[in-house]
Amino acid sequence: MPIASAATAPTRAELVDHLVRTRIAGEVATPRENNLSHYRRLANGDRHYWFGLEFGDRWTDEQDILAVMAERCGVNDDPHHRQGQDTIDPELTVDALDRAAALLRKAAAGKQRVLFATGHPGGLLDVHRATAEALRAAGCEIVVIPDGLRADDGMVFQFGDVAMLERGATLWHTHSPEPMAAILDGLERDGRPLPDLVMADHGWAGCAAQRGLDAIGFADSNDPALFLAESEGTLRTTIPLDDHVLSPRHYDPLTAYLLDAAGVS
């Protein structure tokens, strides 16, 4: 049954059904070939797939990465499955949302400083924006980033309390850690405190976690770095999901569930 409004949080069962129907989880659009290619590239030391994290020589076997992705994301664990459909387990998505909610609840209770950022403005911007709004209403300080930051031939700026990369008046899809590095370096340069918590995705979350900050990250099935970081304890929790489905409105019930579970809706 479709969820009509994001104002009312779905139950766990309703959210799982919604995630599968909208292909945020379940049988997702990202093909198996693409997943395995990215796991292999990370294993081969391609830092584009490390998302600002430092793995040393700990993840040089593609099969080890596949095992973590099966456990924490829900992709098919059969190493002989090389082509075709792959999956994200919606139960794992909701489990991760519950872990994230616990961190948001703690942030609200402690009136913490929280930074939001996204490299997927076409899909996840409103998830971050709505969460920032709810935490501000609960008494948190939403970190304002310094002006004039540059990274990756673009400007790092904030829109709706969410940091993003802008190039040529366009919000940019990026997995790079450099924009987050520019933010954290800029805060330190200005003598301002770093965030107590970062909620971000991809390289933005990876960079924050590598700097020792508590971080919540969103990641797709073809982006293993954050799941590996979570398995090592570097990143607090990684939420598995398809990060760019047909409509950004499909993420509204997920956001409603997260905020309700955190007690800040």
Automatic annotation (TrEMBL):
InterPro entries membership: Phosphatase_SCO2771 (IPR031423)
Entry protein name: Phosphatase
Source organism: Streptomyces kronopolitis
